[in-house]
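Database export, one record per block. Field names are fixed; values are copied verbatim from the stored entry.
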Amino acid sequence: MTSAISTASATRAWRNWAGNVSARPAREATPASATEVADLVRRAAEDGLAVKTVGSGHSFTAVAATDGLLIRPDLLTGIRRIDRTAMTVTVESGTPLKRLNAALAREGLSLTNMGDITEQTVAGAVSTGTHGTGRDSGSIAAQITALELVTADGSLITCDARRNPDVFAAARIGLGALGVITAITFAVEPLFLLTAREEPMSFARVTSDFEELYAENEHFEFYWFPHTGNCNTKRNNRTPGPLAPTGAVSGWIDDELLSNRLFQVVNSLGRAVPATIPTIAKITSRALSARTYTDIPHKVFTTPRRVRFLEMEYAVPREACVAALREVKAMVERSPLKISFPVEVRTAPADDIALSTASGRDSAYIAVHVYRGTPHRGYFTAVERIMTAHGGRPHWGKIHTRDADYFARAYPRFDEFLALRDRMDPQRLFRNDYLRRVLGA
């Protein structure tokens, strides 16, 4: 099978999921193997074209945008192999997370932790640092044991803790700057059960008890509803069972009707008449009720998100989380802003990946959103000012204004990543405007 390639006259504009980033590549290709990816990279280099790979387009930044060769990994999907002795799974880079989670569950296996959205491809998710929440278990990239990637000279290499360890240390969250990932090997474990306990709680109580709630639960997160003192908390912990999933009707009401369809209506109204947002927020946040259910991991960690939005997220040192969040709340209360989306707070343990937002420090994530089509700049700028004052690191796939000078201060191993990039891609084949801003020229 050969890859599908289109030329400049036939390419269509590429647009991301949120609709805030677009590009028109000179070429597009849909390779069906790592060998085809290598051939495409070599040809692009000969023709002086930059190379970028796109996944589902779920990043809010232009990390995947290019006017050169756009590689679509639609045919690079599926599980290559499962090693039950090593407890690993090797998966093609274009595989959507939702398909991986379902396939692993059928095999009686699971990732240890995962984010709450599963539309991303595995390569896109790890390259930008996608994460869930966890006291002891980290991002999706932190669960990688090996990577296969095509480098700028068209070579196909494998890296892990023994083979090319310097590449492995950086490429797990590589922003597409070091090569094109063609396969990923993840650590997996036998399928387990999680009990989720969702409960409304006041902002005052969540923030005063944050460290206790974090320490007592394997996975703790909460959402604060701006213009209110109300939060919704979620605690996920392992359990021996029995299985007790949400009922078909009650689950549809909570996860589809309320969280998607009604939420879409509420946000559409808020965009049309912003003055209604605080009142709606008070009503909807008070309407939340507690629920407890037990299920396999991907049915607890993940939820469908059909309402489109723009997002900014910062990782701050965990000990700074409460102070930073209180400052965000005070800022919203004294401003004319009308915010219809809740603010999400999660955690992750320190890891050893050079450009991970949790690199070298236990972290808390504060994510702010606005409904697509709603002005976001004033809100995001004000929040970003608070986060950077606390040494925050922005999510690589979400809106921010930071540049290489900032990251050189924020990441102790930033120069290490740049030196590796200089060695692996001296001609900047994998360049684009976003990488030029965040990594420097």
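Remark 1: DSSP finds 14 helices and 21 strands in the chain.
Remark 2: The longest strand covers residues 193-202.
End of record.
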